[in-house]
Amino acid sequence: MKKFTKSSLAVITGLSLFVSGYSIADDDTSSDVQQQSYSIGASLGKYVSSQIYSQTQLGAEVDVDLVVKGVIDALKGEQKYSDEEILTFLNQRAEQLNAAREAEDARIALKNMTEGSAYLASNKKSDKVTVTESGLQYEVITMGEGRKANPEDVVTVHYKGLLIDGTEFDNSYERDEPNRFALMSVIEGWQEGITLMPEGSTFKFTIPSELAYGKKQVGIIPPSSILVFEVELVKVEEPGENSHGMGLSGMGMGGMMGKAH
Q: Which positions make up the signal peptide (predicted)?
């Protein structure tokens, strides 16, 4: 019986090798039907492999031989358990995975809170950094001379976002497209910070997790993460101003649009 844990993730990519020693290396897949049929199987294999990977990431064991046998038995209509039994077993596993996921999130959150507190304490010692009453830290990189945004305004910005370890999770400059959005729709750190900026300014924000996504993981942003942004305020508009033909956009990586709850 082959069981896969965190230490043997690489083997999962060879999932197809377990299918009864079957190889398609010499098979003819030249026709449309054959190519499409093979693609169905390949797509299924990638999906199953991704499910196994995500579960082993949480420390769960998976018997890949039995996964493959279950797929084949189901295709033949010879599955060992009833649909009701299968649902029961899958629900049991889902509960175990949820518990493991919650424990892992709690561990990561505690680590990020500890490291984040130290980062904020160190960052605010800089003469260039201002700390607001809420705890938002900002640094003026370039001070513009345009209008400032009100909380109800629509703004257009360029930005890049980093975790405190330097990991970049979003960058509008790389997309070569600024984002336009209602200011009240984004995380609290942005709502406060952008109202401090005249048009044409570039500020650096260091945003405590409670002004960002709190204890929730959002995309690749781990729970309780401090977020660091360089934000260029390109334009400020009143609601409805010059809105013909211009749509509001989300922020890159699903990011900064509202607070996760």
A: 1-25
